[in-house]
Write a structure and sequence with these properties.
- The complex is a heterodimer of chains A (137) and B (147).
- Chain A is mainly β and 137 residues long.
- Chain A contains 1 helix and 8 strands; from the N terminus they run αββββββββ.
- The N terminus of chain A is likely disordered.
- The longest helix of chain B is centred in the first third of the chain and has 22 residues.
- The radius of gyration of chain B is 27 Å and the shape is elongated.
- Chain B has 147 residues and is mostly beta strands.
- The chains are: A mainly beta (137), B mainly beta (147).
- At the A-B interface, helix 1, strand 1, strand 2 and strand 5 of A face helix 1, strand 1, strand 2 and strand 5 of B.
């Protein structure tokens, strides 16, 4: 008996795609690649946006969906001629579904050295808290 | 029915291949594969300006050299993250990067300046004086030479 399983070449690829689909991350971006790091307090999303100023980037959160978009313009100074470029220009858009445990009102965005860092805290009632133990009496 | 038939497909082989693939990917990210960051070159009459995207890279981690008309930009990018954070999505690449750029022999290796801002490294390389286009004045035949 022989059997083949189609579309099952890389079982991890399937798991990864499924995971990313749940998060709602679009994976085919040439620009604004991102990482999501998670700790007890919430998540930090970091995007590579070299050469962009904060005015060129828009961060919108609506109905638990975080959208980061903008446009990188190709500016060639006067008197110059661009003879080569493989840098990305044009619009970009990244969308992430925020888990319901995250507080959309808590988003804090910082742009430094071409990296945009977005911190989203866990809802206050879900934050880890230390409970003090009192002696009896 | 024979009991010695070897299955042509084995889930364990697939799993093994998948694991190897995953491990290799992690190892590559660990600096085995050199990244080549995107760049652009703009030529002016007297200089070249090379811009290279290096988001999140600190100045100390960049090495720049110009030798025989070849500009070399290299260094490494490391992630800043707290130890207890778990990375769940990882598209950004870290590790060493290198970009070589042949600029020709008309460049002046002594006059290279570079600045890093907003994650972009801008390198300005002046062209040598004698190869810049020079304006040559034409005098009328018979007129005495000026100067």
């Amino acid at each position: 008996m022989s059997y083949t399983v189609r579309g099952f070449r890389d079982p991890f690829a399937a798991a990864r795609t499924e995971f990313e689909r749940n998060l709602g991350v679009q994976t085919d971006s040439r620009f604004a690649q991102l990482t999501v790091a998670q700790d007890a307090g919430g998540i930090v999303v970091r995007l590579d946006v070299p050469g962009m100023s904060s005015e060129d980037i828009s961060v919108v959160v609506e109905d638990g969906v975080l959208e980061i978009s903008g446009e990188r313009k190709c500016v060639v100074p006067e008197g110059g001629q661009q003879i080569f470029s493989n840098r990305h220009t044009g619009q970009f858009r990244r969308v992430l579904n925020l888990h319901e445990s995250l507080d959309p009102d808590s988003i804090d965005a910082v742009l430094a050295d071409g990296v945009l860092a977005l911190r989203v805290a866990r809802r206050p009632e879900l934050q880890p808290r230390k409970i003090s133990v009192k002696p009896a009496g | 029915m024979s009991t010695h038939t070897k299955p042509r497909f084995s889930l364990f082989d697939e799993l093994d291949r998948g694991l190897n693939h995953l491990v290799n990917e992690v190892l590559q990210q660990d600096g085995r594969r050199t990244l080549s960051p995107p760049l652009s070159v703009v030529e002016f009459e007297d200089r070249y300006v090379v811009s290279c995207d290096l988001p999140g890279v600190v100045l100390e981690d960049i090495e720049l050299s110009l030798e025989e008309g070849v500009l070399l930009i290299r260094g490494s990018r490391s992630e800043v993250s707290s130890e207890d954070a778990k990375v769940t999505v990882n598209e950004r690449r870290f590790g060493s990067f290198e970009r070589r750029l042949q600029l020709g022999r008309d460049v002046d290796a002594e006059s290279v300046s570079a600045e890093l801002g907003d994650g972009v490294l801008s390198v300005t390389i002046r062209k040598q004086q004698q190869v810049r286009p020079q304006k040559i004045s034409i005098r009328k035949a018979g007129d005495p030479e000026q100067g």
